[in-house]
Amino acid sequence: MNRPPDGPARRLTGPEAHERRITELEKRVTFSSTTIGLLFALPMLALIFVFFYWPSGQALFWAFTLEQPWGGGNRFVGFRNFIQLLEDPVYWGSIARSLVFGLSSTVLAMGVALLLALFTDRELRGSRLYRTVFVWPYAIAAPALGLAFRFILAPEAGLLSLINHAWPGLWNPALDGKDAMIAVIVAFSWKYVGYNFIFFLSALQGIPRAQIEAAAMDGAGPLRRMRDIQLPLLTPTLFFLLVINITESFQDSFGIVDIMTQGGPARATELMVYKIYFDGFKGLDYSGAAAQSIILMLLVIMLTVLQFRFIERRVHYK
Amino acid sequence: MKAKLFAAAALAALFAAGPAAAEKTKIDFWFGNSGDIAKRVQEQCDRFNQSQADYEVVCTSQGSYDASLQNTIAAFRAGKQPTIAQVSDAGTLDIMLSGAFYPANKLMADNGIDVDWNDYFSGIRAYYATSKGEMYSFPFNSSTALLYWNKDAYGKIGKDHAPATWEEAAADFKALKEAGYACPLGFNISRDEMWQYEEQFLAVHGEPIATKNNGFGGLDAELIFNKGKWVQFVKDLKGWYDAGYAVIKSKDTGQTFVEAFAAGDCQTILTSVGDHGNIGRTAKEGMNWGVAMLPVYEGTARKSSFVGGASLWVLSGKSDAEYKAAAAFFQFIAKPEEALTWSTVTGYIPVRNSGYEYLVKNGFYDKAPYQGRELAIKSLTASPADGTTPGGIRLGGLLQIRQEISNGMQAIFVNNADIQASLDEAAARGNQILRRFEETYAGKELP
């Protein structure tokens, strides 16, 4: 409104003038050359290159060599690193365990988060408090989280040792592989419940109240409204979180495993990403770890493609 | 703001005015110890810095041996390496083959400092020296494994000495159990404990872990720990475990075996002499305990145990002035007085004869809190280093090999897997690691 009068726009008044100005503005933002656009994109591209493509390229290169850790040189060995891994039954075991871990923790983290979000959305007593508190776990670093859960779940001294007082020997993640797996799944899920919760809650609050109220007037109870209105409208969020949770469970679990079980007992919690961490950072086998990362990357890509191919079809975008 | 600027300017002027301060050669020293030991290393650095005006060593703890090695390698690859880096026993071979270092013996000779390398305990020297006996690094924090026993509990079963053989130990464990003790032997089978339960066991029995003199003779060594007396030991240990004489105590169960021993919950443990100080400080009030050398099986002539811990390496690519500073630092920490302070404040043992003798002369080992630590020296020097038994382990990927053995042990103890088959599998998988390592360094000669 305070725009100083200039050029032809000055002679026109009213809505016509307004429209004219907009067309002029639109014309002005169209660039004939792509150079300036590229210039604007350059910093971001450089960042992506430095922090993503460069290291990935390095890993890809190492995966086909035997690299000396101190940088003394390397030998090209073709696909041998991959063949060695894929011929190893123990490695296939870690792939299977990663799948079990990924699916279980995703189901647990999303299930609990959805339930909590539904409750909070119904504005049950204390929901204002939950809304803030539930996000915190996501901000806790994996090692701290692992330590806390190690204390909580310790069979002799932890909180869960009460179980062993009632039923001796029932719970022992130190000596029982299944218990150890449950322990890391619970610890990992606990962290992601908070993350998922935020997304679910905001999606639920985005559902028009009118629809829910209309359903209520038609006599649908809370459960029926959840099933027929809220959940179908949540599917885009559900799908997004499914992809994120599965991806993260394959990549973000090594810190928790390292602190809680170190892959044991007897390899029961040796996940793919923990093996990469151990072989690369502790064992100094850079090439073996690089080859494993490539396999992990392919697996995660494959899982994501599968999800988009088969699950996304059932997602209703508004 | 102005005041700040003024202060900064004044400070700058001060530095410019003091040429002595400006000429100080600064070098970095990265190490892996954490907690109390890190504080002790820092104190040693401070003493060096205060002892002279020419050099300043900046000591930085990287949190753990693994992290320190990882950070040092990353820094080296980026050309920003520290002058001195601590490398643990498991990382020794990698750096030895890397050529990324300035050999310790050459460093001292080049800087005109005469070092009596024979002053190092033979067992310690043997572990870190090349196959030709040259020292490329300086042994730093050194330890070995000992048996810790609760004198009160053993007194209840009529014993006034720790078991010297495993047969005796088995009888003691049984008697302790029958006397109502819930945990005669506390132990664990994670990667870290393979050191005392496997490597040290084989060392004191004079048995090889691998062919080629435990790898000193070449990169084509093969693991053979699954063929000798150790198999019998694993069987015995499993028997004790099943009978309730031996109990797994770890962070995961809620109490480590060291904590369990200090609390009086477990009556016997095997751990590093480095824990001696810690147990002394945390032991239950009034508890009588002692240490002994690791037991051997009857009819075995005891051999020297291996040294554990880490040594200090000087990395390549630094200036002459920095090397001079490093040499001065090494000369400083070699002093007998430093050995006394170091052994007093940590559980680590002196690494040189001269240091040890100085400690003896000062009555160190007669003082109650340090009594028994001389057994570590005795254990390390139980047999002459004449080359008839391996003086150490020179295997690539040693950490991963320990992990494989630990996985085999866990399969045996947790899943009741067949003992021989599990150990064979661990050896076979370990050999794969060795072959990968050999191929990575193909064409390189083991020094």
From TrEMBL, chain A:
Primary localization: membrane
Residues in ABC transmembrane type-1 domain copies: 95-307
Any single Pfam family the record assigns to this protein: BPD_transp_1
InterPro entries hit by this protein: MetI-like (IPR000515), MetI-like_sf (IPR035906), UgpAE/MalFG_permease (IPR050809)
Entry annotated with the keyword Ion transport: no
GO cellular component: plasma membrane
Keyword terms of this UniProt record: Cell inner membrane, Cell membrane, Membrane, Transmembrane, Transmembrane helix, Transport
Function according to Swiss-Prot or TrEMBL: Part of the ABC transporter complex UgpBAEC involved in sn-glycerol-3-phosphate (G3P) import. Probably responsible for the translocation of the substrate across the membrane.
Sequence similarity: Belongs to the binding-protein-dependent transport system permease family.
Name this protein carries in UniProt: sn-glycerol-3-phosphate transport system permease protein UgpA
Source organism of this protein record: Prosthecomicrobium pneumaticum
From TrEMBL, chain B:
CC annotations in GO: periplasmic space
Keyword Coiled coil attributed: no
Protein name from the UniProt record: sn-glycerol-3-phosphate-binding periplasmic protein UgpB
Coiled coil spans: none
Oligomer status and interactors: The complex is composed of two ATP-binding proteins (UgpC), two transmembrane proteins (UgpA and UgpE) and a solute-binding protein (UgpB).
Principal location class: periplasm
Record family assignment: Belongs to the bacterial solute-binding protein 1 family.
Signal peptide boundaries: 1-22
Keyword tags: Periplasm, Signal, Transport
Organism field: Prosthecomicrobium pneumaticum
Function comment: Part of the ABC transporter complex UgpBAEC involved in sn-glycerol-3-phosphate (G3P) import. Binds G3P.
Compartment(s) where it occurs, according to its Swiss-Prot or TrEMBL record: Periplasm
